[in-house]
Each structure stands twice: as structure tokens, then as C-alpha cells.
Design a protein that fits this description.
The complex is a heterodimer of chains A (393) and B (80). Chain A has 393 residues and is α+β, with helices and mostly antiparallel strands. Chain A has ten helices and 20 strands. The relative contact order of chain A is 0.13. Classes of the chains: A alpha+beta (393), B mainly alpha (80). Chain B: InterPro entries: ACP, ACP-like_sf, PP-bd_ACP.
């Protein structure tokens, strides 16, 4: 019997609001299933479960603001007998809640059983409520939840594009996100002794290879320079383990896997950095697909809990236009971030002569408790070397 | 399709790619990167969407031709 708790979805999260359950008591769940949606300062996050079992009881109610560590549900292992939920779900002390939470509320069952589903259509309570609010018939929707169940996102997609959220809601959301970013970055600068190394990479070979590769591809198969940079970085991180992992109470733990966080700017001033899991093992095409998928879902506010909590190293790029270089701030508990300025023609020296060539300036910010400038230098040099043979990425 | 219809369809696809944009706030002269803050991934996704919707394949060198709704309406009309 395990208590499924509100996960930490990043160093800047203290609490989240439960907005949707995608499971009910009696449902079988397995590792990786999305069981709930939690609204945070970084948008709505789909919460995954990390064990197999059967949902014994939903402890948290929809609409509750719950601190990290608060019980959400009780899940019994396969074959395990049911237990009294009052014994199985002890209240957990909240960790730094932003607002007082009444612990006894966690122990109560959902306030009311879900209303009967029209025409036997499976739909989450939040989806039903939103559909009623918008006047959308559930029968007209296609469900994307477990077993084809209609979830909140399916209802939201029916909203015509001409009726966006009010601007003031967007402003408030961005303001909250800025607070979260400020808290995490202030903590990072306070606790992590950053050092920086910068290196300009000649992108001639990578640009030429990419132009030739994309020329004969339909748009959906084209690859961006960002994918080459990320793949080169992921491969280099496999070699320089001191930049890839987490720093906790017991010090640094290198990660055997490279889960590369990708900083995605949201219009209006927000920023999220969800992870592409096992980025080093993906082909360039698969990495592009993962980047596209992540960007789209970040914009729509539908990221997964694993993506928000598992990054081992972060990449942040200014994009096609902008200044030459940018120095990043490490996202705790990670120990390094690589930032890329805008790629463009720069004056490089080749064979003693100054030439104009396509180049990008990379800057590594790394945790001095774990590594030093010599290692950081090796890491950026390794990224450079991999970009000189793009066909091998 | 008229250029107005193409412009409306372009903005529909643009908002589908970037749902945090408000279609009512997008002007015909708004630049995808400079005004609407799209990044290279957003623009590639828009190119894919326009290809599917209009049957017009846009080469990388032609991306500047769809950089604003007004430019795109003229460019797409000429290719359809």
C-alpha cells in the first residue's frame, strides 16, 4: 500500500492545485500512467504514477491547493488486500505550503460521487463540468484519456480560437510564473557557486550538412540547428559526467542517463525547462520530434510531471535572432546549464586568416562544488568536436 | 480562396501552433519572430500546418515570405 503524493515539479514549486483526476477507485494503474492534472505556476502538469497497482482511494479533492508531499491517493500493489484507508493514508506534514492547508480535508473522500455520465461516455469530472459550462455535448468529443475517456484538454480544444482566455488572466498567470522563476533563480544564485566558460563553435560543417539534409525533406521531416546542438551536448554530457546529475543533501550524484532540459520561452515572459528523456540515445529525427512535441505541449500547458522533475542538465538558446552570447543560471538541483547565443556569421581565424563563418557562442554555467573550469572547458570542446562531424550525430 | 480568406486561415493555423496568442490581437503586419515571439520550432510547425492546409510546400529559403499574415496571404495566394 503506497500513498501517492503531490510530486515536486521543480525547484520553484511549493504547491499545486489538483484540477483533474483521470482515475477512480478500483482502476488499475501502471508505471508512467497519467493519473491527475495539477495546476502550478508553470501551467497545468499531467501527473504520472511511478508504480503498478490499483487505486484504493482518492484522498485529495479537486480544487484543493496542496503542498509538495501532500497525499493525493492510496495505491495498493497488485494482489495486495484492501486496507482501511484511514490507516493506509496517514496525513503527511506539508512542506512549506504557500497557504495553510487543512490536513483533515486530505482524509475525506471526494465530496460527492461523480454524476452519471450521459450515454455511458467516460469523462473526468473536470471535463464534464467544463463541457457543461461551455455547452459542449460530451457525445461530440473524442477522448484522449485512459480507455478513451474525455479529459479536460479534450473539452478545451473545442473552444473556438476566437475566444481566448482574458488578457488579465494571462497577465496574472505570467506574473505567478515570474515569481516562481525569481524564487528558483534566487535560490540558485544564493546556493550554487557558479563558474562560466565560453566557447565559439564554427558551425560551417553543421550548417552545410543541415541545409543539404533539409533541402530534400518535406517540412515535417526537417531538422533545426537546435537539435544538432542538443544532440552534440547530450553526447558530450555522457563523457563529462560532472555536468550531468543532481546535487542533493549528500552532495553530487551523477546521472547515468542524460535527460536534457530544454528551456522554452512562453510569450509574455514565462519560461519552462522540461526534459527530453534519454536525449543522447535519440536519433536526430526522434530528438526533433521530441523537441516539437515538448514545445507544443509547453505552449498549451500540458507537460508531464516526469518532464518537469527529471532533467539532469539544461540547454537554453536565444534562437535565430538576438545577441551573440548569454550566460545562464543553473536550475537546481542540476549542476550545469549550456546557453547558446544566436547563430550567425562571426569573424573566425582559420590558418592565420580572419574569415567570416557561421558560428555560435556557447556558454557553460556550472556548479563549482562539482567541477571546475578545466572540466567545463573540456565539455564545451567536446560539444564543438561533435558538431564538426554532424553526419555522426 | 481570396487573400482575406487565406489570411484568416493562416491566423487560425498560427494560433493552433501557438495557442497562447490572441488572434484578435494579431495585426496583418505583425512579424512572427519580432512581434509575436515565435521561435524556430514554432515557425517550422507553422510551415508544416500551412503545407497541410493549403498544399503549398515552403522551402527554408522562403520562410521570410510568410513572416507576417499580410506577406503570407500574398505568397500563398500566388502558389495555390
Amino acid at each position: 500500500m503506497a500513498v501517492f503524493k503531490m510530486p515536486s515539479l521543480g525547484a520553484d514549486m511549493e504547491a499545486g492545485k489538483l484540477v483533474e483526476w483521470l482515475v477512480k477507485p478500483g482502476d488499475t494503474v501502471k508505471h508512467g500512467d497519467i493519473v491527475a492534472v495539477v495546476e502550478t505556476q508553470k501551467g497545468a502538469i499531467e501527473i504520472e504514477v511511478f508504480e503498478d497497482g490499483v487505486v484504493e482511494k482518492l484522498v485529495a479533492e479537486l480544487g484543493q491547493d496542496l503542498p509538495v508531499g501532500a497525499p493525493l491517493a492510496v495505491i495498493k500493489a497488485p494482489g495486495e488486500a484492501s486496507a482501511e484507508t484511514s490507516e493506509a493514508a496517514p496525513p503527511v506534514a506539508p512542506q512549506s505550503p504557500t497557504e495553510p492547508v487543512e490536513p483533515e480535508v486530505w482524509m475525506e473522500p471526494p465530496s460527492a460521487p461523480p454524476p452519471a455520465t450521459p450515454s455511458g461516455i467516460a469523462a473526468s469530472p473536470a471535463a464534464k463540468a467544463r463541457a457543461a459550462e461551455l455547452g459542449v455535448a460530451l457525445e461530440s468529443l473524442t477522448g484522449s484519456g485512459p480507455g478513451g475517456a474525455i479529459v479536460l484538454a479534450d473539452v478545451e480544444t473545442t473552444r473556438p480560437a476566437a475566444t481566448p482566455s482574458p488578457a488579465e488572466d494571462r497577465g496574472a498567470y505570467i506574473a505567478e510564473m515570474r515569481k516562481a522563476i525569481a524564487a528558483a533563480m534566487a535560490r540558485s544564485k544564493r546556493e550554487i557557486p557558479h563558474y562560466y566558460v565560453t566557447h565559439t563553435v564554427d558551425l560551417s560543417a553543421a550548417s552545410d550538412w543541415l541545409s543539404a539534409a533539409n533541402a530534400n525533406r518535406p517540412p515535417e521531416e526537417r531538422i533545426l540547428m537546435g537539435a544538432l546542438l542538443m544532440k552534440a551536448m547530450a553526447l558530450a554530457a555522457r563523457e563529462e559526467k560532472a555536468v550531468n546529475g543532481h546535487f542533493g543533501e549528500d552532495g553530487f550524484t551523477p546521472s547515468p542517463a542524460v535527460h536534457l532540459g530544454l528551456a522554452i520561452a512562453l510569450r509574455g515572459g514565462g519560461l519552462v525547462a522540461p526534459a527530453i528523456l534519454d536525449a543522447d540515445k535519440k536519433s536526430l529525427q526522434d530528438l526533433m520530434e521530441a523537441m516539437r512535441d515538448l514545445t507544443m505541449r509547453a505552449r498549451a500547458g500540458r507537460l508531464k510531471s516526469s518532464e518537469m522533475s527529471m532533467a539532469t542538465l539544461t540547454f537554453s538558446a536565444l534562437g535565430e535572432s538576438g545577441v551573440e552570447a548569454m550566460a545562464g543560471i543553473i536550475v537546481p538541483p542540476q549542476v550545469a546549464i549550456v546557453t547558446a547565443g544566436a547563430p550567425g556569421p562571426q569573424a573566425l581565424v582559420r590558418d592565420g586568416k580572419v574569415v567570416a563563418a557561421q558560428a555560435v557562442t556557447l556558454t557553460l554555467a556550472a556548479d563549482h562544488r562539482v567541477s571546475d573550469g578545466r572540466l567545463g572547458s573540456k565539455f564545451l570542446t567536446a560539444i564543438d568536436a561533435k558538431l564538426q562531424t554532424p553526419e555522426e550525430l | 480562396m481570396t487573400e482575406d480568406e487565406i489570411r484568416r486561415a493562416y491566423i487560425e493555423e498560427l494560433v493552433r501552433v501557438a495557442p497562447d496568442l490572441d488572434p484578435a490581437e494579431i495585426a496583418g503586419s505583425d512579424h512572427l519572430q519580432d512581434d509575436l515571439e515565435l521561435d524556430s520550432m514554432d515557425i517550422l510547425n507553422l510551415v508544416i500546418a500551412l503545407d497541410k492546409r493549403f498544399g503549398v510546400e515552403i522551402a527554408e529559403a522562403e520562410y521570410p515570405q510568410i513572416a507576417t499574415p499580410d506577406l503570407a496571404a500574398g505568397f500563398l495566394a500566388s502558389r495555390m
